[in-house]
Design goal:
The protein is mostly beta strands. The chain contains 1 helix and 11 strands, in the order βββββββββαββ. It is globular and about 40 Å long.
Length: 126
Amino acid sequence: QVQLVESGGGLVQAGGSLRLSCVASGRTFSNYAMGWFRQAPGKEREFVSAIRWSGGNIYYADSVKGRFTISRDNAKNTVYLQMNSLKPEDTATYYCAATLEDLALWATQSRAYAYWGQGTQVTVSS
């Protein structure tokens, strides 16, 4: 089992920044690829970003590319999502997730992630 706890969400004006954190506990964090997904009210959960266990392979949704940066610190069992130039359409609950699957095949597929956090709310006002 892997337990994931997100933090760092909040209310921010358009153009602002937030940094989300996800702390993992349980099994060896460094074995897992980590992803961030988000879900807005009335919408399906969508992929945001993912990072391989080594940090060497990183994936972004087109909608956040150039604005969001994913990173991880295996010594701290933590994955981060730095979100800059936020837009109202970024408003959602953000979830981190862990997977042992090959990100090259499964990065954007939520069903590939076995463990999920409880989510943190991000609200961007216009």
